[in-house]
Design a protein that fits this description.
Oligomer: single chain
Number of domains: 1
Largest sheet: 5 strands, antiparallel
Distance between the termini: 33 Å
Structural class: alpha+beta
Number of helices: 3
Helix content: 10-25%
Shape: globular
Strand order of the largest sheet: 4-3-1-2-5
Order of helices and strands: HEEHEEHE
Length: about 130
């Protein structure tokens, strides 16, 4: 079964109630909103994307986060990915923040994130990539 799973990808990617990937959009020139002058960063998990952005020292102020679903892209309010001093949260703190927000609001872009218990994204690679 491992060979098949490697070929078709993680099972959670086929769950249409979860984003199949996450995107961070960062203007190449700070403050410029031109879509053609934007760097894109990707990861299969929001925690992986945020961790990657932190490693690359990407300023949270410049970033727009999105959950990508089949046929739609939903913005993610990054305040749930930041500490009180404006730094990117790390696991498990980001998991707790996203899980708590989802429990309070039931907003679909926050679904599946679990601090304790079974994470809906456990079968995914957490490595980020970019810029593209």
């Amino acid at each position: 079964m491992g060979i098949i799973r490697n070929f078709i990808g993680p099972k959670s990617k086929y769950n249409r109630s979860l984003p199949f990937t996450y995107i961070a959009k960062v203007p190449i020139i700070p403050g410029d909103e031109d879509e053609h002058m934007t760097n894109y960063y990707f990861a299969d998990t929001i925690c992986g994307l945020v961790e990657y952005l932190d490693e690359k020292e990407i300023d949270p102020e410049e970033v727009q986060l999105f959950g990508c679903y089949h046929k739609k892209e939903i913005p993610i309010d990054k305040k749930y990915c930041l500490s009180s001093d404006g730094k990117w949260l790390k696991r498990p703190d980001i998991c707790h923040s996203l899980e708590t927000h989802y429990q309070n609001t039931m907003e679909e872009q926050f679904k599946g994130h679990v601090e304790l218990g079974e994470c809906s994204f456990d079968d995914r690679d957490t490595r980020g990539s970019g810029p593209y």
